[in-house]
Inverse folding.
């Protein structure tokens, strides 16, 4: 299912590299990404390769948006009943290139991490919902309202249609931001072999102004 969010820039195939670069820069200090890509060597290149795959695979579901073509901020949603990016999508959306450039270690780590997060995801919510796969704002563009610009149109749609949504985060300061958008923390655990934290958050539909005035 594709949403048409007219106030945002819809990312297309021609934007993949710019979008991946924007995401890689924004997630450069994220614990989960460090777990997937490692902390040394050509980490920046590995991170961009990872996000190139994520963007390509997510474009299949047609809900990748940015604040503008300059990609100050990017949001990636997976629609109802799509709770992960599959192994098949990995190989058809750039996975072979990741293996050729960076070897098998990163894909193997990605697979194990996906098993961990997919299991937790399924435990927390089984009814149809949307999955916030990524929300990122470039470091130089933060505290300028770009996160709200990216989130509000989707949350309004979910409220109007009575749809819950789910996300995972590892960054400490992100929990407060997502609580501001109506998400509640449902689990917090240490990431395996990482030293970071995995947080699962759920948001159930909020009462809209229209409903509250009835």
């Amino acid at each position: 299912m594709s949403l048409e969010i007219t106030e945002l820039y819809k990312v297309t195939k021609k934007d993949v590299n710019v979008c991946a670069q924007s995401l890689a820069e924004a997630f450069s200090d994220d614990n989960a990404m460090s777990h997937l890509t490692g902390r040394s060597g050509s980490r920046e290149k590995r991170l961009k390769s990872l996000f190139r795959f994520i963007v390509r695979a997510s474009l299949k579901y047609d809900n990748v948006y940015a604040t503008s073509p300059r990609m100050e901020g990017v949001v990636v949603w997976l629609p109802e009943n799509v709770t992960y990016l599959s192994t098949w999508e990995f190989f058809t959306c750039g996975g072979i290139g990741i293996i050729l450039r960076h070897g098998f270690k990163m894909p193997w780590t990605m697979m194990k991490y996906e098993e961990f997060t997919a299991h937790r995801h399924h435990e927390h919510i089984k009814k149809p919902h949307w999955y916030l796969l990524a929300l990122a704002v470039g470091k130089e563009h933060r505290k300028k309202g770009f996160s709200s610009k990216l989130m509000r149109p989707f949350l309004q749609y979910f409220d109007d249609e009575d749809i819950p949504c789910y996300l995972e985060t590892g960054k400490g300061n992100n929990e407060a931001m997502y609580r501001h958008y109506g998400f509640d923390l449902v689990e917090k655990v240490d990431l395996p072999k990482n030293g970071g934290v995995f947080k699962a958050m759920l948001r159930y539909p909020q009462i809209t102004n229209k409903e509250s005035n009835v």
